[in-house]
Design a protein that fits this description.
Elements: E1 2-5, E2 17-22, H1 32-39, H2 43-50, E3 60-64, E4 73-78, H3 87-102, E5 108-112, H4 120-134, E6 152-156, H5 163-188, H6 196-210, E7 213-217, H7 219-224, H8 228-234, E8 242-248, E9 259-264, E10 266-270, H9 290-305, E11 310-320, E12 331-334, E13 340-343, H10 350-363, E14 368-373, H11 378-383, E15 388-392, H12 395-407, E16 412-414, E17 432-433, H13 442-454, E18 459-463, E19 469-470, E20 480-481, H14 486-498
Parallel strand pairs: 1-6, 2-4, 2-5, 5-6, 9-11, 9-14, 10-11, 13-17, 14-18, 15-16
Antiparallel strand pairs: 3-4, 7-8, 8-11, 12-13, 15-18, 19-20
Helix pairs in contact: 3-4, 4-5, 5-9, 6-9, 8-10, 9-14, 10-13, 12-14
Bound molecules: ligand BES and zinc ion (ZN) (2 copies).
Length: 504
């Protein structure tokens, strides 16, 4: 999609569709809509007084060949109540506009940002919405209609003095949304087309393109490093594991400056292993690599946005298969950290590979750790498909992540990390066991397991099992992998850099 800033008055923009939005209030036709209404001879005001145009969230009003305007169509979306309106709503409106217009074969559009919000933040949100909404799951369709996408979009409503600010927001939004779409594409890939080796290749290609340092550890190197927990999961598959390491180094780093470590779970398919999963819905377990894909996407974005802190992504990747050499319930494994783990359930494999990923990130010098993982079905029970579960060892650092989530329109909710839960993962024969012996709290005991490996390094864990995938299409986005967490972590990395250390 080609993106530009448009400074002409809205009525004279020649395009296939001019999009704007109206608020839900007594008189929805106000502000920038007054001029458009006047140009159309009062068409909008008539629709409003008949009740057809009310401003209700996501309401669609489409006028064809509106007299007095240079556009072929005028699309007015409902924006809901003004006091509840922010960049999250704007992002969704832009996505909904793209999807509405795409279905009508429109290729070129302009999005008019309303009065008093012509700033970089709004431009960014609109561009993110446009690009995320344009993303489609068509890769493996042989009868895809050529060019069923919006190819050109302009941001309107800016005068020439605000053009620079709009362009800055546009560029930032483009980088962030393209990175999120990079992760969505990976998440949607079937496991026969995205093995750990394929994922490593794609991460390597992206890193070279982005100017990031990259190191891919193969099974031999993983063995040399004694990553017994990662290897224990990999041994059940004939596909070898990989450990992907991407490094962003800013132009100048002060000695002793904090280093942000991003660890992402990348199980390219989770059968459960010998503790095999039921076949119902098992095909979805191709998305068990979305935590890893999110971290790759964050690196892609920060390579371009250039925060002032060093950031290292560590993405352990393997299949979880029940092959002849697979680990069995009751096996004891020695993790890279030296801790022994009794594997009670081979389906609790994410925490095993993350244990070694975390240990490696610490060895590389990370002073702050964030992991993202489709870790537990229990987080879906706790929070449904709407909120990411957030666990953290230090309130200050956890709050920074939650603040970035709020700023970027991603729903996240804090969960308890409480030493009393530690009791439930005590093992009879090893240091720790990989599932709880108690009832309930499965997402929390999984987090407690990870915490064992973080030591005293400030750490935040994002359980994205309920939010990394959407089963249904939304007005603003296609179904499938969502790319959740990426916007939050990019925002955090940018602030982490400018603040110096996280105030943990
Ligand atoms: N990948 C799954 C978690 C998951 C569940 C992701 C649903 C997405 C949707 C994870 O590896 C797993 O199987 N966890 C088990 C842990 C249990 C054995 C303690 C679970 O949640 O059932
Ligand atoms: Zn599993
Ligand atoms: Zn899994």
């Amino acid at each position: 999609m080609e993106l530009t800033v448009e400074t002409r008055p809205p009525a004279s923009i020649e395009t296939e569709a001019l999009v704007t939005y109206a608020f839900e209030q007594d008189k929805p036709i106000e502000g920038a809509l007054v001029a458009l209404d006047a140009a159309t001879g009062g068409a909008l005001a008539k629709l409003a007084s008949s009740g057809e145009l009310s401003g209700k969230m996501l309401e669609v009003t489409l006028l064809h060949y509106p007299a007095g305007l240079s556009t072929q169509r005028l699309l007015v979306l409902g924006a809901g109540k003004k006091d509840k309106f922010g960049s999250a709503e704007l992002r969704r409106l832009a996505g909904s506009a793209v999807r509405t217009l795409k279905s009508k074969k429109v290729k070129r559009m302009a999005f008019l940002i309303r009065e008093n919000s012509q700033n970089a933040e709004a431009a960014q949100a609109v561009v993110e919405g446009l690009l995320l909404g344009n993303f489609e799951l068509e890769k493996y369709k042989t009868d895809k209609k050529p060019g069923g996408e919006i190819t050109e979009a302009a941001l309107a409503g800016f005068d020439s003095s605000a053009q620079g600010e709009a362009a800055r927001g546009l560029e930032r939004g483009r980088i962030i949304a393209e990175s999120q779409n990079f992760a969505r594409d990976l998440g949607n890939e079937p496991s026969n087309r995205l093995t750990p080796r394929n994922l490593a290749e794609r991460a390597g290609a992206m890193a070279r393109e982005s100017g990031l340092a990259v190191e891919i550890l193969d099974e031999k190197k993983i063995e040399e490093l004694k990553m017994g927990a990662l290897l224990s999961v990999a041994q059940g598959s004939s596909e070898p594991p990989r450990l992907i390491v991407l490094i962003y180094t800013p132009q100048s780093v002060k000695p002793g400056a904090p280093i942000l470590g991003l660890v992402g779970k990348a199980i390219t398919f989770d059968t459960g292993g010998i503790s095999i999963k039921p076949s119902q819905d098992m095909e979805k377990m191709k998305y068990d690599m979305c935590g890893g894909a999110a971290m790759l996407a964050v690196m892609r974005a920060i390579a371009r946005l250039k925060p002032s802190c060093k950031v290292i992504a560590v993405v352990p990747s393997t299949e979880n298969m029940p092959g002849g050499r697979a680990q069995k319930p009751g096996d004891v494994q020695i993790a890279m950290s030296g801790k022994s783990i009794e594997v009670i359930n081979t389906d609790a494999e994410g925490r095993l590979i993350l244990a070694d990923g975390i240990a490696y990130a610490k060895q590389l010098g990370c002073t702050h750790l964030i992991d993202a993982a489709t870790l537990t079905g229990a987080i879906v029970v706790a929070l449904g498909n709407l909120n990411v579960g957030v666990f953290g060892s230090e309130p200050g650092f956890t709050e920074q992540v939650l603040a970035s989530a709020r700023a970027t329109g991603e729903k996240m909710w804090p969960m308890p990390v409480d030493e009393d839960y530690r009791e439930m993962i005590k093992s009879g024969i090893a240091d720790i066991q990989n599932v709880s012996s108690g009832k309930g709290g499965g997402a929390i005991t999984a987090a407690m397991f990870l915490k064992e490996f973080t030591g005293d390094t400030p750490w935040v864990h994002l359980d994205i099992a309920g939010t990394a995938w959407q089963d249904d299409v939304k007005p603003w986005s296609a179904k499938g992998a969502t790319g959740v967490g990426i916007r939050t972590l990019i925002d955090l990395a940018m602030k982490f850099g400018s603040d110096g250390a996280a105030k943990a």
